[in-house]
Amino acid sequence: MDVTGLLEKAEQEVAEKGRKAQAASRQLAVLRSAVKDRALLAMADALLARQEEILEANRKDYEEAAAAGRTGALLDRLKLTPERIAGMARGLRNVAALPDPVGEGVSRTVRPNGLVIEEVRVPLGVVGIIYEARPNVTADAAGLCLKAGNAVILRGGHEALRSNMAIVRALHAGLEAAGVVREAVQLLEFPGRESAQALMRAREYVDVLIPRGGAGLIQTVVREARVPVIETGVGNCHTFVDATADLQMALNIVINAKCQRPSVCNAMETLLVHKDVAATFLPQVAEALRERGVELRGCPRTQALVPDVKPATEEDWYAEYLDLILAVKVVDSLEEAIAHINRYGSRHSEAIVTNDYTAAQRFLDEVDAACVYVNASTRFSDGEQFGLGAEIGISTQKLHARGPMGLRELTTVKFRVYGNGQVRES
Amino acid sequence: MDVTGLLEKAEQEVAEKGRKAQAASRQLAVLRSAVKDRALLAMADALLARQEEILEANRKDYEEAAAAGRTGALLDRLKLTPERIAGMARGLRNVAALPDPVGEGVSRTVRPNGLVIEEVRVPLGVVGIIYEARPNVTADAAGLCLKAGNAVILRGGHEALRSNMAIVRALHAGLEAAGVVREAVQLLEFPGRESAQALMRAREYVDVLIPRGGAGLIQTVVREARVPVIETGVGNCHTFVDATADLQMALNIVINAKCQRPSVCNAMETLLVHKDVAATFLPQVAEALRERGVELRGCPRTQALVPDVKPATEEDWYAEYLDLILAVKVVDSLEEAIAHINRYGSRHSEAIVTNDYTAAQRFLDEVDAACVYVNASTRFSDGEQFGLGAEIGISTQKLHARGPMGLRELTTVKFRVYGNGQVRES
User: Fold this and answer.
1) Is A375 strand, coil or helix?
2) A325-331 and A268-274 as β-strands: parallel, antiparallel, unpaired?
3) Is A46 helix (H, G, I), strand (E, B) or coil?
C-alpha cells in the first residue's frame, strides 16, 4: 500500500474508534464514582487473571524487538514480568481509592438578577495518549482517564502492540464485569506511524492529546498535532548552590538530584555554584559525584578548580542527559543563576540551596518553571510525591496544567446556570 | 517581494518583538498590583488625551477601507468616535479596579517529609492576540493582559493598522508615565497576513494565542497555530422548550435569546420544541418572532404548524446565523433534544425551559457545553454578566478555560516548594 493508502487506513480506524469514544464519553460523564471504582478493581483483577496471556503476548513482542536489534533501554521498558503486572494492578486499585474529581464545585455565585451560576468539574471527554513501547502506560493511563470520566484512545509504541492488545482485552473484561461500556478504553491497532498522525489530527473526536515519552516523541506531537496538546516531560533541571548554602545539605541534595535516578525528567542536569563557595564546594562535590560514576562537564572556572573536567559546550547547557553526566558552571550572582536557568532550562523543576531569605524568595518568584524549590531535591516533582496519588504526566507548558498532573487535570469545567425566567436587558 | 521574503520579514518582526516581550514578561510577573493599576489608569488618561490623534488615524483607516469597498459590518466595527474612545478608557479603569489574580494561592500542602508545597497563580508570560479590524480590542486586550502580569503581542486586522498604532502609542505613554516597561504591549505592524502566520508559529516566544473574531479567523488559527491556542467564540446555541415549560416564560426567553442582539455568539440559533407543546407554542412564538423580523426555517412538523416556514436543511442545524434567522425543530423527547444539541451544537451555551426537575438536571448533566441553562436566556454567557468584571473571550474548547474567560484565565500556576534539606529516598 502507498503512503496515502496507509494514512487513509489509519484515519479510518481513528474515525471509527473516535466516534465510539465520543459516544462512550457521554455515558462515562454521568457515571457514578462507585461504578467507576468497581470497574477499576475488576480491571485490576482481570490483569492478574490473564497474566499468562499477557506475558505470552509480551514474550513475542520482546523477541521480535530483540531480533530487530532494538536497544537495551527500549527492551527493558518493553519487558513485562509477573511483578510488573502486579504493579499495574496495584496502580488501578490505588486510582480506585482516590477521590473522584468529577462534580466537584469550583465556585457558586448568585448574580444580582437572581441567576445562580455554578462552576463544576466535568470530564474532558475523549483523551488521546501517544506513548512509547511501555505496556504499563496502557493500564495506568486507562485507569486515570476512566476515574476522571473520560474515554481514552491509546496509541502505544508498535513494538508493544501484542502486549497492549492483551492488556486491553483484560481491561475490557474488567469494564464489562462492572457494566461499563468497553469503548471507554480503546487501543489503536494499526501498526504504522500513520496511526499517531491520524490521532493527532482528529479534532472532531479527541478533546485533548497527552504525549508520554522522550523529547523526540513530544516534539513531534507538539509540531504535528491539530488537537489541543498538553506537553509533558522534558526536564533540563538545575540546582543552584548559593553563597550562603549549608554545604553539607547542598552536597546531599546535589547527589540525590543527579544520582538517585538519573534517567528521569526531574533529575538534575546542570549544577550552578556561586563563586564565593565554588573553591570549597566544587572539589568536594566533584569527588562525591565521581565516586558515583558521574562525568562532569564544566565552565572554565570549574575546570580551574577541579582537575580533569571536560569543557562544557553551549549544547551542554541545553542538554537533558538522562544519564550520569552533569554540566557545571560557576556564577557570579543569584541574578546570573536565574538568568541562566530562564535561558537554558525547560521550565520543569529548578532548585536553590541557600540560607538567604531574599535570595530564596527571589529565586521562587523569578525562575520561570513549573516547580521551584528551596533546599530540596528536584526529584520530588512527581504526582505521587506531591500527594496527587497518581500522575498522568508532568506538564511543562502553561496552558491548562503545569507541573505534576493528577486526576483534576484530566477534567475541565462547565457552568451550570439556574434561572427562573431571566432575560438580558442590555 | 516574493512570498518567502514577506514571511521572513514578518518572522523577523515577531522574533524581535517576541524577545522583547519575553524580557518584559519577566519584569511584569513580579510587578506589584499598585503599579499595574497605576499604569492602567495612566493608559486610560493617555487615550483621552490623545483622542484627536487616534481619531485622525482612524479617519484614514476608515476612508481607505471604504474606498476599497469593504462591507458595512467591518466599517461599523472599525469606526472610532469620542464615545468609543471614552468606552475604551472606561474599560481600562474597570480592569484597574478588579482584584489581581497573580499570587493567589490555589492550594498549600505539607507532605509527610515536611516539604511545603504551595500552588500559586502566576502570569502566563507572553500572550498573543489575533483579531479583526476592531480597534477597541487593542486597548481591552492590552489592559487585561497587563493586569494579569502578561506581556501581550497584538496582531489586529490590517484595515485598522493606523488606528491601532495610534492607540498603542497612547498605551505606551501611559505605561511610561507609571514606570512600566513599554514592551509590555506591542503591536505587529507588518501589514500582510504573513504577520499572523509568523505569530502562530512563534512557540519560542509566545505562551498562548487567543484568536478573537469570526468563525473563519478562529478556524484558521486553530488549523495553523503551533503555539497553544484557546479557541473562542463560535456559538450555535439552542433553546429547548420542554413539555412542562411555562410557555409565557419560554416566549420571553426565546425572544430575548434570538432578538436582543442577534449578531453575537451567545444568541440563539436553533429552537427545539417538545411535541406535546408544539401545537400551542409554535404559532405563538412564530408570530412574536416575525413581528421582530425573524425569518424561520423549520422541520416538516414545524412547517405543518406554522404557515410559510421555509424548510430547514442539514446545514441549518449547524448554522451560526448571527442574524435574524432561526432554525426550528419539533422533538419527541428530552433525549432527542439533548442528542440534537450534542450533535449540532458548538458547545457554547444551551438552555432548557422546563418545570420538570429530572429533565432540568438531565439537561444540565448531559448537554456537553461550556454553559448550560435552566429557565434563562443564553445571552447571559458573558464575563460581565457572570461577574468576572471583564472578559478576554468565551472559550469553546475544554483545555485550560471553558466559557467566559476573565483575568484568572490569563494566568497559570507554579508550584513553590519549601524544604530544609529533603532528598528523595525511593
Assistant:
1) strand
2) parallel
3) helix
Cα distances (angstroms) measured from residue B369 to each of A212, B214, B345, B355: 28, 19, 8, 21
Who's near B84: CB < 8 A, 6+ residues apart? B136
Judge: A423–B252 Cβ closer than 8 Å, yes or no.
yes
Q: CA-to-CA distance for A400 and A395, rounded, in angstroms?
A: 9
B-contacting residues of A 322-351, CB under 8 Å? 342
User: Closest Cα partner for B238 from B300, B314, B317?
Assistant: B317
CB atoms within 10 A of CB B223: 11
Averaged over A9-18, what is the pLDDT? 96
Q: Name the residue type at position A140.
A: D
Rounded distance between C-alpha atoms, residue A377 and residue A249, angstroms:
10
Closest Cβ–Cβ partner in A29, A372, A419 for B417: A372
- 1.20.120.1200, 3.40.605.10, 2.60.40.1270, 3.20.20.70: CATH of A3-231+401-418: 3.40.605.10
Phi, psi of B222 (to 5 degrees): -60, -35
What pLDDT is stored for residue B1 in this prediction?
A: 59
A398 touching B, CB under 8 A?
Answer: yes
Cell of A385: 510525591
Q: Which residues of B touch A107 (CB under 8 A)?
A: none
Mean of the per-residue pLDDT values of chain A: 95
Residue A390 or B407, more confident = B407
Strands A393-395 and A403-405: antiparallel
| pLDDT digit string, tens, across residues A299-346 | 999 999 999 999 999 999 999 999 999 999 999 999 999 999 999 999
Partner-chain contact A421 B370, CB within 8 Å: no
**Could you tell me how far CA B17 lies from the centroid of its own chain?**
24
8 Å CB contact between A83 and A139: no
Q: In what order do the strands lie in the sheet with A411-422?
A: A105-110, A116-123, A411-422, B371-376, B349-353, B237-241, B268-274, B325-331, B295-298, B310-311
- Verify whether the Cβ–Cβ distance A417 to B207 is below 8 Å: no
A chain contacts of residue B260, beta-carbon cutoff 8 Å = 423-424
Query: What are the chain A neighbours of B148 within 8 Å (beta carbons)?
Result: none
Ranges of chain B with pLDDT below 70? 1
Report chain A residues whose CB lies below 8 A from the CB of B111: 385-387
Domain residue spans of chain B: 3-231+401-418, 237-380
Q: Is A310 helix (H, G, I), strand (E, B) or coil?
A: strand
- Is the torsion defined by CA of A176, A178, A180, A185 positive or negative? negative
Residue B390 has a pLDDT of 83
**Letter for the amino acid at A146?**
L
Does any CB of chain A come closer than 8 Å to the CB of residue B226? yes
Closest by Cβ to B376, choosing from A125, A403, A417: A417
Per-residue pLDDT, averaged over A84-100, amounts to 96
Domain A237-380 carries which CATH code?
Answer: 3.40.309.10
Query: Partners of A153 in the beta sheet?
Result: A128, A186
Does an H or E element contain A340, and which? helix A334-344
pTM here is: 0.92
> What number is the ipTM of this complex?
0.93
CA distance B56 to chain A (A): 31
